[in-house]
Amino acid sequence: MLFKYLPPSRIDVIKNRKLRFSSPKALNDPYEERFKLGNTEWEVGGVASKDELMKFVSLSRNPLNLLMWSHYTDSHQGYVVGFNRADPYFIGAETVRYRHLRSNFNGELLTPDKLKRFNVKETLKKFVLEKAIDWSYEEEERLFLQDVPQSITEVGVDNWGESILLNDFPAKSVACVYLGVSSSPQLKEEVICTLKQYEHEIPLYQLKMSKTMFALEASRVL
């Protein structure tokens, strides 16, 4: 299963059944938008036209990570959606590799002309699937927009001038939902009402703090 951590303000994800696919520039790691080819540093936007830029959604293999809940759900106030990884929509998600050293395509000095010999999308994908070892706690999988059926809604422009793209995901792919330990009764009620609109049963879990470990425990509430 793959999980998306969300703040309470993003209840629209399960209501409208749309996920945001972002470019590396919009993420919180400065290395996301930079990579090495030969002896040269490149920016993703410098070697690909706008329609070639890597757009992806970040997912995790772990729904109970304390740091992830703190960083991505507004301090445990939000929720996590679990998706069936075997669903055709999500089956193409790719595992992020965590490393101490940055990868390099090869040792030569590459020019824009030489770059034309390479498959730009696949070359860029290789680099955006690598992150510093510091991020390994995220257990991240990335699902690329180019690898899923596209039914895109553009809802504006972000702070970097990139289009904010939402793409439909199939309702049947939703497998479960977790509510954070600090989630409000209002969010719980809204999530329950939303899940009842789906045609299949979706388990809902409430998280609580373990009394014996620094860990989260889940109890089914729906």
Automatic annotation (TrEMBL):
Short name of any one Pfam family annotated for the protein: DUF2971
InterPro entries given in the database record: DUF2971
Domain of life (superkingdom): Bacteria
Protein name per Swiss-Prot or TrEMBL: DUF2971 domain-containing protein
Source species: Vibrio chagasii
